[in-house]
Design a protein that fits this description.
By secondary structure, the protein is of the alpha/beta class. It has two domains: 3-239, Alpha-Beta Complex (Spore Coat Polysaccharide Biosynthesis Protein SpsA, Chain A); 263-480, Vaccinia Virus protein VP39 (Rossmann fold, 3-Layer(aba) Sandwich), CATH 3.40.50. It is built from 17 helices and 14 strands. It has helices spanning 16-21, 25-28, 45-55, 71-85, 105-113, 130-133, 138-155, 171-174, 188-198, 221-239, 263-271, 288-295, 350-358, 377-384, 406-415, 439-455, 457-460; strands spanning 3-9, 31-38, 61-65, 90-95, 119-123, 167-170, 203-207, 278-282, 299-304, 317-320, 335-341, 361-372, 418-426, 463-470. A seven-stranded mixed beta sheet has the order 3-2-1-4-6-5-7, with helices on both faces. The protein has a seven-stranded mixed beta sheet with strand order 10-9-8-11-12-14-13, sandwiched between helices. Strand 2, helix 3 (45-55) and strand 3 form a beta-alpha-beta unit. The longest helix is centred in the middle third of the chain and has 19 residues, at 221-239. It is elongated.
């Protein structure tokens, strides 16, 4: 495998030569190239690197000086892009200030060469007391432990240290990560861990010695701590569907929301106690809601554009169809109930689909539909703050083509020939956030949220769930209008 070393250097004229000399001969034989990137230093780092290049034939050494300072993260972006473009298989990140031991580089590379890892992190925290014995200042040790513990709790990872800059990556793994959009600052290292975790790549830790000498620290500790915590929270939210997914993203295409205060829970409550019904589930996804309805004794036909794994086992019949073209005739009609859970906002003409749904029920049947509330405080706050953007899921789902206030939703239903029968509102999506089973959140925050929803639904209801019935005489079929 083609192994390369990326040496990030800034004002490292006094340490760089020694760092390169300390790379063991056995490791040097494994290296195809060593890339020294001087990040526009204000000292003679570049001259030292050039002189080393001219006088030392040990390495295939490439020296680059950036015409402007890119920052710690920006320097890595440039180096990893170089590694990708030059066909490296493995890239090792080494700091030019001597803080990390080149002597153990072989151990850092080994798990990737053996096929056991996509990324290897050198950890100073794997053995108790090792970091302090190596000269790590107590305040840095305590801060490192607090941050690493917090980040493990938020992400579910079990890394002994998040804040080591001694790393190796499989270049093919880096190619799959959107690292070019990451921070140019020191929190770049945290962001790339989060992206590896989101992509479910294998991370291995290797114990490394700790060394603190006369190097100058360019990190603002408090600013750094703030940045990495924000990044990690964004990852946690991203895994729940919020944000663009650059740091954390949703892995499931469709989430079942079973809590009694979610849209699915509200629909199940509205159907509860009714005799066995013949139900059409429009936009059924993988069929988790249909499965719950089937278990309750109802007969469910589902329709959706894609056939998810196992969907046919969760209902009596599944029909694959593009709902933007209407509900296909093969689905049939004369249903007792038609459900459109979180679907009409994905279509260019919601009224047309609602009208089609209404035409599929008999004279005494009904339609239940749910939509997200664009006037909820969350999108209101983002718009007011000038930070409007799309999420992976929720009210600002990037796949939504239409947005609804309560008034707009009822107007669209009226256009479709439907009149309001009953309604329920939902609160914060604790299911999606993975907090519905958390006693403190569900019992305290959840209860307060439900009171607010009841008091001011247009501000605090996350979704509107309404049951309608066709106007007297029933709705006309779309092809008869």
């Amino acid at each position: 495998m083609k192994v390369g070393v990326l040496v990030v250097a800034y004002n490292a004229e006094s340490t760089l030569e020694a760092v390169l000399d300390r790379i063991p001969d056995a490791t040097q034989l494994q290296l195809a190239e060593v890339l020294v990137q001087d990040d526009h230093s204000t000292d003679d780092t570049h001259a030292v690197a050039q002189e080393y290049h001219g006088n030392n034939p040990r390495f295939h050494l490439t020296v680059v000086r950036h015409p402007q300072n890119l920052g710690y993260g920006g320097n890595q972006k440039a180096g990893y892009t170089y590694a990708i473009n030059h066909g490296w298989d493995v890239v090792v990140l080494l700091h030019g200030d001597g803080q990390y031991a080149p002597e153990v580089m072989g151990e850092i590379i080994a798990p990737i060469l053996d096929g056991d890892a996509d990324a290897v992190f050198g950890s100073r925290m794997m053995h108790r007391g090792q970091a302090l014995k190596g000269g790590m200042p107590m305040y840095k040790y305590v801060g490192n432990r607090i941050l690493s513990t917090t980040q493990n709790a938020l992400t579910g990872l079990q890394l002994s240290e998040w804040h080591s800059g001694y790393r190796a990556y499989r270049v093919s793994a880096l190619e799959q990560l959107p690292f070019v959009g990451n921070s140019d600052g020191f929190d770049f290292d945290t962001e790339i861990i989060l992206q590896l975790a989101a992509a479910q790549m294998n991370i291995v830790e290797v114990s490394i010695p700790t060394y603190y000498g006369d190097e100058i620290c360019h990190v603002n500790g408090l600013e750094y701590a703030k940045d990495v915590v924000i990044d990690t929270v964004r990852y946690r939210l991203g895994r729940s569907g919020f944000g663009s997914g650059r740091l954390g993203r949703v892995t499931e295409p469709y989430a079942f929301k079973p809590s009694p205060y979610s849209s699915h829970g509200r629909i199940l409550q509205m159907v509860q106690g009714r005799p066995p019904l013949r139900i059409l589930d429009v936009g059924c996804g993988p069929g988790w809601l249909a499965a719950a309805l089937t278990e309750a004794g109802h007969t469910v036909v589902g329709v959706d554009i894609a056939e998810a794994d196992g969907v046919r086992d969760r209902m009596s019949r599944f029909v694959q169809a593009d709902l933007s073209q209407g509900i296909p005739d093969e689905v049939g009609d004369d249903f007792d109930l038609v459900i459109g859970a979180d679907i009409i906002e994905h279509l260019a003409d919601p009224a047309e689909l609602l009208g089609d749904m209404a035409s599929r029920v008999h004279a005494h049947g009904s339609v239940i539909a749910s939509v997200p509330n664009i006037s909820h405080w969350y999108p209101r706050f983002r718009i007011t703050a000038g930070r409007f953007d799309y999420d992976q899921r929720g009210v600002l789902d990037a796949t939504h083509l239409r947005f609804f206030t309560r008034r707009r939703f009822l107007r669209v239903a009226d256009e479709a020939g439907l009149e309001h029968v009953a309604h329920r509102h939902t609160g914060l999506p604790l299911d999606a956030l993975g907090l519905s089973d958390h006693a403190l959140v569900a019992g305290t925050i959840g209860r307060a949220d439900r009171l607010l929803v009841k008091w001011w639904p247009t501000m605090f209801a996350y979704q509107f769930v309404y049951e309608f019935r066709p106007w007297r005489g029933g709705a006309l079929r779309n092809d008869a209008r």
